[in-house]
Amino acid sequence: MTTRRTRPAPRPPEGTPPRAELARQARTVLGDAVRIAHWAAGAPGPGTTAPLAAHALERAATALELSPAQVRAGWDRARLAGLIELHGDTARPGWRLRAWDRDDSAVLRGWVALFDAWSLVHAAPAGIEAGAVAEAVEAVPQVLSLLQLSAGPVTVPALLDLLGQRVAELHEERCEVPLGPGRPATAATAAGTTADRPDPAAGTGGTDADLNALLLDWALEGLAAVGALTLGHGHATLTPLGNWAVWAKLEQICVAAQSPAGNIEQSAADMLLGCARLTPGPARDEYRAWLAARTVGSAVAELLAVARGQDALLRGLAFEALRVVGAPAEPEVRAVLAEPSLRPYALLWLAEYEGNDPDDAQDVLSREEATWLWVDTAAAVADHGETGLLVRHLDTAVQGTVPALLDEVRAVGHPRTVQVLVALAAAHPDPALAKAVRRAAFQVHTGGA
Fold first, then answer.
1. Between β-strands 235-238 and 154-155, what pairing exists: parallel, antiparallel or unpaired?
2. What digits encode the pLDDT tens for the residues 95-130?
3. pLDDT score at 23
4. What is the pLDDT of residues 242-260, one digit of tens each?
């Protein structure tokens, strides 16, 4: 028996509510979205990849006693939070909706997915150039960091000054010369109340500081709309949810649990999560011990049931455990080839079982199957991994260029596509690439080409 040393999990800042309380707050933020998701999952033909059709919107508003605007907003949030998934013209409950009342981790991951997509939830001001909007989105993490480190209200002038500095740094990094006569005004000179700022309809004719003020208002309102912060008169404060989420991102906390003691007695899902942090050798030992305590048939059935769930990390780990089972699992694995979500994994399993080199096994996948698997793996990394892993995952795509990858990802129809692209855009250090990925996420989200 060996003793593994693990780094203790970082502790959240003092005063952070327990996870159960954070999950309760997240459930409150997403209350209308959950109601609409339950309605959509049970209603015939409730929508398409575009916003709800007019007749469905009316039916939902009547059934839920909400205004059409509330239904649209809730539908949007339900999709972004993974509460519903669209398959053609049919809405199905996402795994988070099924786990909503009993799994605080699923609730918090759903809220974080919404938090990451704040710029899709709240439309940017009209008349603002897309490049300026992208720069503001890129600068927001620094604004959030200041709010988190301050542990209390931060004045709008201070946030605006930081936003202006970050945007100026982005211009410097790209060797861009500011437009307009003379040196651009500092962001601090434009600080003040919202009422003092120019109307978005006025376009971009003002100074850089005026533009930054408009964009800061938009960002703060968008973050407030998803429950990440509250706005007071001339200041902003992170909510407990927002404070926890920013801290978690700064600490790069991984959601997957450390290996628990006694994996042999755990369910398949808990056992797989417990093995997620292990290197391949120790993980195979854990799989063998777990399998030895069960009949082969029941163990294979339980692993495949987990693989059919919505957690992509568990899907991949389930097939790793099935590799340890070997020949007795072959008929059951072959039988799931007809299931789209399992087919790429089953094809790879069978290729390796039949003697193909693991490095060459990918050749058995069609281009579409390989792209679907890339998105599914990216979803697992986004849910459970570190930022750097998601960025490096780009290199594993079969497409030769990022534009080609984005085109095929948009077409493959994976239910987590928007969330994966939003997470990748937030993580990637290349501003131009992040902007292209963010645009693709927006196009998938709105049903555009």
1. antiparallel
2. 788 888 888 888 998 898 899 889 888 888 888 888
3. 93
4. 999 998 877 643 333 333 4
- Give the start-end residues of each E strand in 41-139: 84-87, 90-93
Please check whether residue 202 is in contact with residue 227, taking contact to mean a CB–CB distance below 8 angstroms: no
DSSP 394: G
Outline where 151-279 has alpha helix (H).
156-173, 208-225, 240-251, 268-275
For 268-311, how does the pLDDT look when each residue is reduced to its tens digit (9 = 90+)? 998 998 888 888 888 888 888 888 778 788 889 999 999 998 88
Query: Which of 35, 105, 116, 106 lies closest to 73, judged by CA?
Result: 35
- Closest Cα to residue 126, out of 198, 209, 48? 198
Match 């799931």 to its residue by tokens.
336
Query: What number of CA atoms fall less than 13 Å from residue 326's CA on the CB side?
Result: 5
Instruction: Give the DSSP letter string of 307-339.
Output: HTSS-HHHHHHHHHHHHHH-GGGHHHHHHGGGS
Distances (CA, A) of 413 to 173, 325, 353: 36, 31, 29
**Which candidate, 215, 221, 250, places its Cα nearest to that of 236?**
221
